Amino acid sequence: MMSVFKDDVEIVDSANCSADGVEMIEDLDVEVVEDRNLPKEPKMMSSSYVEPYVGLQFDDLEDAHTCYKVFSRRTGFSIRTNHTRLSKEDRSLIGVEYVCSREGFRRHYSKLKERVRPETAETKIGCKAMMTIRKDGEKWIVSKFVLEHNHELLSPRSTSLLRGHRRVTPAQKNLIDTLNESGIPTRKIMSVLSKESSGDYNVGCIGKDIQNYLGKRRRQFLGEEDAQSLYTYFLESERNNPGFVYSIQVDVDGSMGNCFWVDGRSRAAYQYFGDVVTFDTTYLTNRYKMPFVLFTGVNHHHQSVMFGCALLINETSESYTWLFKTWLEAMLGRVPSTIITDDDKAIAKAIAEVLPDTTHKLCVWHLLQKVREHLAHVYNRYPQFQEDFHHCIHETLTVEEFELEWTEMLLKYKLEENSWLQNIYTRRTKWVPAYLRGIFCAGISTTQQSESMNKFFKDYVRSSTMVSDFVHQYDKALDAFYLIEKENDVKTKTTKPIMRTSYKVEEEVAKIYTRKSFLIFQEELFNSQRYKASKTREEDGKKIYLVTLDGKESPAYEVTLGREKHNVYCTCCKFEFIGFLCRHSLHILGKKSIMNSILQSYVLERWTINAKRRVVHGICGDEGLVETVPTALAMKHRLMRQFYEIAEMGSQSIQRYEHVCRGIENIRQVLMNVNDGNIEGHTVHSQNIDE
Predict the structure, then answer these.
(1) Beta-carbon neighbour count of residue 128 at 10 Å?
(2) Residue 228 pLDDT more than 70?
(3) What value, to the nearest 5°, has the Cα angle with vertex 303 and ends 297 and 307?
(4) Which of 446, 469, 547, 555 sees the fewest Cβ atoms within 10 Å?
(5) Bridge partners of 537?
(6) Closest among 514, 483, 481 to 497, alpha carbons compared
(7) Do 506 and 525 touch, CB atoms closer than 8 A?
(8) The SWIM-type domain covers which part of the protein (predicted)?
């Protein structure tokens, strides 16, 4: 082994050191490698920073660990404990080996299992940097020190982000608990800690650490009794409501994790109105401060409708991925055309994985709530900025108009280098209305739709509610919600709206639309009389008109009438966005006296009285439809319910318990050895119960 001495410090050539294992080793009959030329009088560690060297002495083990950890942070790597050595006499600790966290190599198993998740990147690459200490009397002495690494070292600033140097301090835990109890999401808690520490690099932990801390805390608080009550509720709901499905994640230690549930009415409603879904993590939760996640949409009465919900332990991409997959299976695999969420990286990652063909739209309202925070200096200095910014975002009709006004606004207010504006601009296709007018959103542009649902639940649920009580109160709120839908059905069928125009089509659509839908159409029809139009040109047999409010020249909308007069298009894209013809198109159709002939093509069934007339196979909802083909999730939970009853019976005596175990093992062997096609020919034999 080659050694180089400099100022009584031995630096060992790492290329000639043997690679040790990575497991904890106790009572090894080996000697710690020492240098025979240790200094006669080892240097003592002072209170000031000291770089490790062979012969350095410490009063206790904690000082030694702290010294090497401080050194690693300043140098640009992190450490871990690799080996320990115990005394053969009294099993006391007499030696410890600290190594670089990139020491060793990943283990490869001979039996390869199919991976559910992508394999994580390699971190261990055989680095031999290390420090070994041994006990000598009452002192601890550095007996071996390898300085060289086989990888690039980080800057001291970046080293603070390595796992070995991250820690949530007690003071930070208190602040995190306070913010969490106040309903602050984890992604914003990190921002608060960053400001408190004067920068992200000074926090000492990352967002993942906060999520892990809160998740662990919630699992600890979620008592066994409460979790059992929740599970019992799910079993009873499944028994009494064939369309009810649920799913619970369980940790390796048996603690309850994320849980999802949805009743048959909501599953059936999704089949009618699931083209557009809003997904929102709110903080109307329970005594454990678990986020209450809502899948919502809009029914034919323009009323919020539930498509399922969940209680989450944490808000990681892994939790959201599990939730989206579970929810999609409960909805018979039908994906929404559009999903609207808040601006969250973990949610975006999960949607990209589970719903790659769904248009992901960001809530523009939540996004623009941050404008004053990031552009306060502009708001205070230029009063006109708010009006210009609003016009650029909400009043531009085409992509070209938006891009032009955006560029002019940046130049006018000298915001070309503003990092926040640059960031939201890169994602403009997900939130700027000009880019999204042609995408059907059922009139929903924000997650406020689900927030209104959240406010609705406040009448039934309080922040101190136990989880088991929470789901029961949720049921009551859902029953009240569907009662309102029935009341709207009755109102539509038993009353007649007042007509406001002389158009015959107004009376016709009043018989088709729900009352709320009719009022939206009626407003457009009535206002169409206030516009004027002029023909501008013809293109490929299509006639194009310029429509403006009578007496004004702007805003101007282009309405295109098809060659055979069976289709109409307006640049405001109201029909494409919400599903109702706009006042500009209705003005042209009225002038051409073709409103009656064309309108039937522009009445969407989802807005009509008969929107739920179609029979949905596979779900038993509130209309009493029979579930003809049970899903895998439904079959799994039916089996779980039966196994739960068997477990209760089998736990009454040791004889019953052993009998159940034999029966389960027999069933398992049968299922492993037969195919679905010939499983009916196999029988399971078991002995009679011997009590």
Answers:
(1) 23
(2) yes
(3) 30
(4) 555
(5) 544
(6) 514
(7) yes
(8) 557-593
Report pLDDT digits (tens) over 443-480: 886 544 545 555 555 555 544 455 656 677 777 778 87
Length of the chain: 691
Q: What is the pLDDT of residues 562-621, one digit of tens each?
A: 877 678 999 999 999 999 999 999 999 998 888 877 777 899 999 999 999 888 777 765
426 conformational bin, left if phi > 0, alpha if psi -120 to 50, beta if neither: alpha
pLDDT band at 174 (very low <50, low <70, confident <90, very high): confident
**What is residue 376's three-state secondary structure?**
helix
Distances (CA, A) of 361 to 274, 368, 430: 15, 14, 5
Under DSSP, the state recorded for 391 is: I
* C-alpha to C-alpha distance for 537 and 556, rounded to whole angstroms: 15
Give a three-class secondary structure readout of 88-125. Answer: CCCCCEEEEEEEECCCCCCCCCCCCCCCCCCCCCCCCC
* DSSP summary character for residue 565: S
The vertex-294 CA angle with 291 and 296, nearest 5°, equals: 165
Helices (H), ranges, 604-653: 632-650
Separation of alpha carbons 520 and 486, rounded Å: 20
Buried b (16+ CB within 10 A) or exposed e, 284-293: bbbbbbbbbb
Are 12 and 144 in contact, with CB atoms under 8 Å apart?
A: yes
Using CA atoms, how far residue 464 sits from 183, 285, 460, in Å, is 13, 8, 12
Q: Hey, what amino acid is at 102? A: R
Q: HSE on the CB side for 449, CA within 13 Å?
A: 29
Half-sphere exposure of 56 (CA within 13 A, CB side): 24
Report the distance separating Cα 459 and Cα 455, nearest Å.
8
Tell the burial category of 502 from Cβ atoms under 10 Å away from its Cβ (0-12, 13-18, 19+): exposed
Beta strand 338-341 pairing with 276-282: parallel
CB atoms within 10 A of CB 600: 11
Question: How many CB atoms neighbour CB 262 within 10 A?
Answer: 24
- In terms of average pLDDT, the best of 202-206, 308-312, 402-406, 488-492 is 402-406
Q: Please check whether residue 308 is in contact with residue 295, taking contact to mean a CB–CB distance below 8 angstroms.
A: yes
| Range in 26-30, 289-293, 312-316 with the lowest mean pLDDT | 26-30
Answer yes or no: are the C-beta atoms of 616 and 264 closer than 8 Å: no
Highest mean pLDDT among 199-213, 235-249, 386-400 belongs to 386-400
Assigned token pair, 35: 């240098």
* Angle, alpha carbons 435-439-442 (nearest 5°): 125
3-state SS, one letter per residue, for 197-208 = CCCHHHCCCCHH
Distance (Å, whole) CA 227 – CA 231: 6
What is the pLDDT averaged over residues 117-146? 86
Cβ atoms 364, 431 nearer than 8 A: yes
